[in-house]
Specification:
Layout: H1 2-16, E1 20-21, E2 27-28, H2 31-52, H3 62-67, H4 71-81, H5 85-94, H6 98-103, H7 116-132
Antiparallel strand pairs: 1-2
Helix pairs in contact: 1-2, 1-7, 2-7, 4-7
């Protein structure tokens, strides 16, 4: 069920990012729900992998969850994103609290940024690793 939920949140994010033509011109898409869904998908996939490898962990911090993985799994995920390790870890650190921060974005009084490209690559790479278990 955990892996199925991870996939469902990833697919929800993909649908949120599909631009929909609006009457009178212009397009609509839903960036904030897409980012939240991607972050939660990544979290669930990481927890799935950890459980499959005999570990479990609570919390939403993506970097902490990632660091609990064994080295071969971490390397496979990084390689599948096509980022070098330094760039990957920097991006993951920048996105570690995305789920918590973005779902309450309306309460934040600061500029918030997230890369849907990075998050999608991350979700897809972790999904591929999860599916290989």
């Amino acid at each position: 069920m955990l892996k199925n939920n991870a996939l469902a949140f990833k697919k929800s994010a993909e649908r949120c990012l599909e631009p929909k033509k609006q009457p009178g011109g212009g397009y609509e898409f839903f960036a904030v729900p897409a980012v939240v869904n991607l972050a939660f998908s990544v979290e669930l996939y990481l927890k799935f992998i950890l459980i499959k490898k005999g570990k479990s962990h609570k919390g939403h911090e993506l970097f902490k969850l990632f660091k609990l993985l064994d080295d071969p799994t971490k390397e496979a995920i990084i390689k599948a994103t096509n980022y070098d390790q330094i760039t990957f870890e920097s991006m993951l650190t920048n996105h570690t609290a995305t789920f918590v921060e973005w779902r309450y974005m309306h309460e934040e009084n600061r500029d918030m940024r997230a890369s849907t490209e990075f998050m999608m690559k991350l979700a897809t790479s972790i999904e591929n690793v999860a599916n290989s278990l």
